[in-house]
Amino acid sequence: MRPSFAEISDEKILSLIRKKKTSEKGFRMLMDKYQERLYHHIRKMVIEHDDTNDVLQNCFIKVFKSIHNFEGKSKLYTWLYRIATNEAITWINKKKRKSTNSIDGEDNILVQTLRADQYFDGDEVQIQLQLALRQLPEKQRTVFNLRYFEELSYKEISELLDTSVGGLKASYHHAVKKIENYFKEVQI
Amino acid sequence: MKNKHLNKKEEIKEELKGLSPMLYELKEQNSPFQVPEGYFKQFQEDLLDQLKEPAGQTSKGRSFWNFPKLLDQVGWLLQPRMALALSSVLVVLVAAWFLFRTDIAPSGQDLSFAALSIEEIQDYIDNNLDDFDEETLKEVAQDDQNIQMLSPNAIDSEELDRYLDDMIEDIDLYELEEIL
After folding, report:
1. Where are the CATH 1.10.1740.10 domain residues in chain A?
2. A40:B31 CB<8 A
3. Nearest beta carbon to residue A180 from set B20, B40, B44
4. Model confidence over A85-120: pLDDT tens digits?
């Protein structure tokens, strides 16, 4: 029985990628193992599927170009998550710079987009959660996403964002409280 | 390894339950974000195709003139401040073209004198003789051999006498009285 991609070790994948003959095979394995997780991580940050597709593509192109420089000082998935997070933040900031809408205007657009999105299957509470997340400062939102949705340990997030575990705990707790307060205000 | 992973998940849930029961309940729901069917397989193929292409080429199946994407890329130009600046520059350029275009030779037209026939030059001089000042005519006369022949030193006195005799014979008395 062939092992599933989730069971293939990162070391094995990296050794395949590093050999010219097996490079493509290794890269396919890397994508099979991580693309879904990275997709959902990016999707929760940029919301729309088409945007997620673009960011994920940029992310893997960057991975492909720089994987030969990966020294293995951190875990492979930590390195991948870091690239995906940075690409998503870069994309969000670029979109913000282009936008001429006010915060209220942006919220309205988000609500309309989610309601019309055929790939979003959430109710009103899920839409409000997305609006609440938008109120958070960028760092808090990233920490919340990684802990709440991706279920990463503080140690893993610490490696990824280069921040102390204590600082991350404080960020996560603040984020949760702010989201709770938001829901109390909108009374859902 | 699996136990460790489960413990981590449990730990995260317990922490959330203590912090916000409402968010804990919300987390139990399925993710609202759906993915198109067959997306990941297609994504992988498209990306690998793109990576195999030589640098500088656009990817297969993706039009370079993807209008929504193009609009997105130039969207910043349509923002009010940029649009105003852009239109100002355009107005200045158009005004400059109108002001200076008379100095510009129409393309493909040869304006050298070599392209003009003798008749054209003569016609022009006849029609515009009054526009030439005396100094210009003198300068031209000094360079012109034919006109130099008309200077007093260049004419033989006998020839001059003969010319005057002929002229007197042709003039009637009435005209002669007028000249005198």
Report:
1. 1-98
2. yes
3. B20
4. 999 999 999 988 877 777 777 788 888 889 989 999
CATH architecture of A101-188: Orthogonal Bundle (1.10)
Residue-averaged pLDDT of chain B: 70
User: Looking at chain A from residue 135 to 154, which residues have their Cβ under 8 Å from any Cβ of chain B?
Assistant: 147-149, 151, 153
| CATH code at A1-98 | 1.10.1740.10
Q: Is residue B83 within 8 angstroms of chain A, CB to CB?
A: no
- pLDDT greater than 50 at residue A29: yes
In chain A, which segments carry CATH 1.10.10.10?
Answer: 101-188
The pLDDT tens digits for B25-61 are: 998 888 899 999 999 999 999 999 988 876 555 444 4
Q: Smallest CA–CA separation between B89 and chain A, in Å? A: 22
Residue A180 sits at the chain B interface (C-beta within 8 Å): yes
The span from the CA of A91 to the CA of A50, in Å, is: 12
Would the CB atoms of A100 and B9 count as touching at under 8 Å? Answer: no
Lowest mean pLDDT among A147-156, A177-186, B22-31, B61-70: B61-70
Q: What is the ipTM of this complex?
A: 0.83
